[in-house]
Amino acid sequence: MSSSCTTRTTRFILAAAVLFTTLNLHAVDYRLELVETEWELKPGLVTTAWSYGGSVPGTPIVARQGETVRIEVVNRLPEPTNVHWHGLVLPVEQDGPSLTIEPGATHRYEFVAGQSGTYWYHPHMMPVLPQLDRGLYGPFIVLAPEDSAYTADHTFVLDDWLLDAQGKRVEGLPAGAMERHGTIETVNGKTGPAVAALNVRSGELHKLRFINASTASDHTLRIEGHRFRITHTDGHALTEPYSTDTITLAPGERVDAELAATGTAGQRYRIASSRPSAGIVIPVVYGESRVAGVASPFVVPAPRAYQLKAGARPDIVLELGSAMGGGHMGHGGGTAMMRWTINGRSHPDTKALDVKVGKLVTMRVYDRDMMAMMMDHRMQHSVHLHGTTFQVLSVNGARPSGEIWKDTVPVPSRGYVDLAFVMTNPGDWMLHCHIIDHEDGGMMTVLRARP
Ligand code: C2O
Ligand code: CU
Description:
This protein has helices at residues 3-23, 129-132, 370-374, 436-440, and strands at residues 27-42, 45-52, 61-64, 68-75, 84-86, 106-112, 117-122, 138-143, 152-161, 184-187, 198-202, 205-212, 219-223, 228-233, 236-244, 246-249, 254-260, 268-273, 281-290, 316-324, 338-342, 353-356, 360-367, 381-385, 390-395, 405-406, 408-411, 416-422, 427-433, 444-450. It is mostly beta strands.
């Protein structure tokens, strides 16, 4: 090839590239600055938080499905961190845990938001609890084309805070506790009278996205005078959406629901947690006017269930448990009484799980937490796997109706769940309990996906 020809070819490619970037606006840019923030939970109650961008939750990241997302993360905190994009399927180097962003340093993440749905982000630097629990989390919403047909699209991030009466953070675990549960509960960083109302008019159809960012607490929300129509779990559309007045989320889980405004004009209703005095009551306030009814744009997804051999043994069997002592450093700085295990071992000594990229894997996860049982501490674990989406085949042997796809699933106390997944990207992917006390205490392992 002559050099002038090469030049012309290069020029052509450049022109095409320029044209491509001008026509194709499929990229969004975000900047997350990690800073210490004086955060007002409600008038008169201010606490010191760590945040992404000065607010709790942090800057919402919103992209359209298929868009490239570029996120510049600037660490202005006194300790190293990293960011995990919980639930998104990404190349492993964009996933978070494998890198360290030192104090004062900046890191740029860049990936394609390939799946629509409700996700979130948080640090993954061990121990995770002191950073996540101080308010470092934010919603990550990937819009599907039909989402724009709702009257409005709202995100509610739920959390709890362990504070003294002055709003000062109580460090470590309260005496006798195995997990850190808060005294105050928040939705979008606000509690009690500071929680923003959901303003609606009769006839409207609202999309509600719930995210549980608590490190250990479940949240149960009940709506008065209405039903939620549950459409998505962990960002994934249900083949059989259903109606309920109650939503429960384990740590790390998300639920999307439609709320048809069928209430009375001028009335007030509430979405309240099971412990309303702790601070989560979302007023649902009707205006006087009405609008013509909005039809649901929800599209029932095509079935994609994995085809499995009946009666086949799971490829991987995990037993979640606990043991006395072991001496990992608790987040208060002291030595924790308990350590948490997978197949009898605690991270980093757990045995890595080897899987092949592109190959269907079945996995059974048991809760065999005898120690917790003996201490009469029944608690479900909340198992999260990075790098993929799994199908929930059954819970305690019972198949769910329709297909359920998730990335975080509660394992019932003394029960088990059966899951199936395919790793599409090679890498070392974390599998852990999303009760962060358990994760930091060793209930974590690595899934090694190789070609
Ligand atoms: Cu949301 Cu490995 O975490
Ligand atoms: Cu757990």
